[in-house]
Amino acid sequence: MTYSIELFIVTAIYGSLAASAHVLPAINPTATPLWPPTGVALALMLLRGYRIWPAILVGAVAPYLITDRSLLEFVAAGIGTLLAALAGTWLIGRWSNGCQTFATPSGVAKFAGVSFAPTAMISSFSALAGSIFVNEPSFPDSVAAGLTWWLADAAAILVIAPVIVLWAMMPLRISSRWDLLESIAVIALAGLIGIVAYSPLIGSDLVSDDLNVALPHRSLLGFLALLPLIWTGLRGNRCTAATAALIFTGMAVWGFAFGNDPFPKTDPNGALLSLLVLSITVSAPSLALAAAIATRHTAEAHLLSVQDQLNGQLERNASALDSIRRHFQTLIEGVVDYAIFALDREGHVTSWNSTAQKIIGYTSEEIIGKHFGIFYRPDERRAGSPTHALETAIERGKYDVEGWRIRKNGTPFFITGSVSSSHDDSGNLIGFISILRDATERRDAEEKLVQAREQLAMSQKMEAIGKLTGGIAHDFNNLLMIIGGSAQIFTRLLDPKLPKAIEAIQTAAKRGESLTRQLLTFSRHQHLSPTVVDLNASIKNMRTMIESSLRGNIVYNENVGEGVASVKVDLAELELAIVNIAVNARDAMPSGGTFTLSVHAVTANQETGGDRRAKAFFAIALGDTGTGIPPNLLSKMFDPFFTTKEVGKGTGLGLSQVYGFAHQAGGTVTADSKVGQGTTITIYLPSCADEQITSKELAAARTRARQPQRQTVLVVDDSPEVADVTSSLFEHLGYDTIYRDSAEAALKLLDAGTKIDLVFSDIVMPGTIDGVGLAREVRSRYPGLPIALTTGYSDAAKAAPPSLKILRKPFDTDALRDFIHDLAPPRPPRSSGAPMTSNTTEASGRN
């Protein structure tokens, strides 16, 4: 309903205006240079949007009902006016902020440009096209009429549209009575000047002809209109400026219709040009000036508002600053460990806290105003150290201080701290803040700090070497998998009396497996299965194994407490680490000696020298009374392949395995040795007192149910050779196997509905999905299907969830059988020992 009423009102207003062109010949488009409907249509569409286009079109065509003009002319004029208004509204809205285009001078200029092209151009030439179809004028007449209508439409838009838009957008509340009176006066004055300069009343019966005689060149008085227009422009009143320009232009159009000076009928082209220039001159500049001044007034008002806000903020900040200053003074006085004092730009002391007095000895009355160089030694003052400290603080913002200073009584003391430059909001230097701490007692800790740095450097070196060894072991494990698996196949297929070389192959594969295990443990990329164990009980259970690693002339002493010392480790790796150390101790005591193992609780900041912030650890100290290690070799003892033994008596990986195991378990390892007195290696393992100890008996009591039917295993590996060996091991255990060389191929097989009871996949594979990704997909799509992974080494295994089982390469039949027993079903029937042939072509072919 509202929309219909709006269309009706716009149609009535616009139609009346268009019809007046035929009721009043003075504004007939064929006789006047100004055509108001185009400007009105553009203004209405700017105010109300595209929704009023039906009213514009109907209002433009409606005068056809009261005239005898051709319908084609009205339709062409109506469509042209509508298209012009649509184009002008779209361009102004996109380019010049829509209705707010008169808010800035640039907006006024853009509006003027849009008015000339395409708004006026579309309107005038569309009307001209309708006139040409009806009247068929000559080409020169058509060109002249088109140019005339174009300029008439442009001038009318510039004069009429701003008035409608600005008055429609002006708030109903009047700012002041004087502003209203000023606007009325300016508009009246502009109209009066227009009447005197151009009105046909002067010289008619209404006004005495004597006035016309007295003002033979009265049209020159039209220039006086610039005064009220400039005045209202300087006042920033855009509505008044646009209205005054419209009134004044209306008077000029009135004079033009009667041919008054300066619009003589004898020269219609010159009269037309004069009127168009006059219309544009009085409308656009005054409106642009008013917009500029209004923008300035708005900016000034905003700045005043911001200034008031800033003044209020400054007052609040000043109050807050005073409060902060008092709090700061209270704070620095409450600091009992640091001397805090302020310096001016030259380095003179300006503030002094009580701790500074306590540490350095000067009272605030004695030190304030003196240069802080008084704290330096004489040789440092001569070398310019105080000045250098200030210059560095200015350049870098902060200068770290560490060195000896002089107290008031002349005694030296060692300090650490900083001198920081202080700047205001503009970046200007206002002084310095010095914070110092008496670190004399900490000087004794410098040796430990140096040692910690050396350990850090060694750790970084070990990390780099570990990455290299981990990569080598990855590929080496695949080779060992093929060698070991093939040896087992040979054992089953060949006559046992024939190849003693098979036993050598298996022995070499086992040794290679042990070697790569040590490499991976050192590089901390070994896949571990940590459990929470009682460290004391576990070490006591290792006594027989440790004693067997030593010789009879070596006495083994064990100092292990009775309390529960729980740690989370891979017990097999812990046993290997202790055995490696025991073997090294045995070789270091060829004539016998004593090997001692002790366990005691420590904290990180007591003995490890690490960055573990007092976390509880258990230290396993393993000491011997052997030959010891020279200091120049002590830092290399954890390096892989480094050994002091004779060729063939050691791989150089024993202590490397210890190093990797300790760090992968979350701890560290240290070594202390003196030539001729022996070596002590200490392994630090983090305490897990809040976790429940895993029961080996409970883990060993898991049910191993058997399945009466043969199960099918999907083997996924990018290496056909490794897949062949793996499939043979599965078949020996009583499984059928199907082989796929990628995760994508495996998923396609599962999607095809093939019955699979277990998916066994390598982790590292080409393609977009690795083994861990395949496990996620299988668990998502087939929740009941078990899946297990295998790898020699892979960083991708770190992304595997804890519930996903991973079997380390290389593995043999026994390891594979135990691994499968730990998984969820399927469980195969126990193998008879001979390889079994697959029942399906696909399984036996491992395609």
From TrEMBL:
It catalyses: ATP + protein L-histidine = ADP + protein N-phospho-L-histidine. The keyword Transmembrane applies. InterPro entries: CheY-like_superfamily, HATPase_C_sf, HATPase_dom, His_kinase_dom, HisK_dim/P_dom, HisK_dim/P_sf, MASE1, PAS. Residues 471-689 form the Histidine kinase domain. Keywords: Cell membrane, Coiled coil, Membrane, Phosphoprotein, Transmembrane, Transmembrane helix. Its EC number is 2.7.13.3. SMART domains: HATPase_c, HisKA, PAS, REC. Residues 712-824 form the Response regulatory domain. Residues 821-847 are annotated as: Disordered. Its main location: membrane. Signal peptide: none annotated. The keyword Phosphoprotein applies. It is found in: Cell membrane. It comes from the Bacteria. It holds the Pfam family MASE1. Residues 435-462 form a coiled coil. The modification 4-aspartylphosphate is found at D762. It is a multi-pass membrane protein. This is histidine kinase. It comes from Bradyrhizobium brasilense.
